[in-house]
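quick one, 105 residues, struct below
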Amino acid sequence: MTQPLTDSQFSDNVLKSKGLVLIDFWAEWCGPCRQLGPILEAIDNEIGNEVKIYKMNVDDSPETASQFGIRSIPTMFLFKDGKQVDMKVGLNTQSTIQSWIESYK
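---
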């Protein structure tokens, strides 16, 4: 199951993490963000042992979103061993996101 993430948890759960971490920057009022939620849940069910998936609500945790210059949501960041390696903006298909994740394993 994807997990919520707050500004105060970001450093410990992402920057100090080993392996792959996907952060979905989203908001409740964002239609494409709500569509992406079930896609990320399905990915988590399939390859959740290979990547940690967190959802960061930009309204509840604006500090991190601002720090990374999030201007459009949904935006997904992929981190590997605490370093940002890539990002995707907008709604993507499950197969596109899974291929993207797997290209960084």
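The chain has a mean pLDDT of 97.
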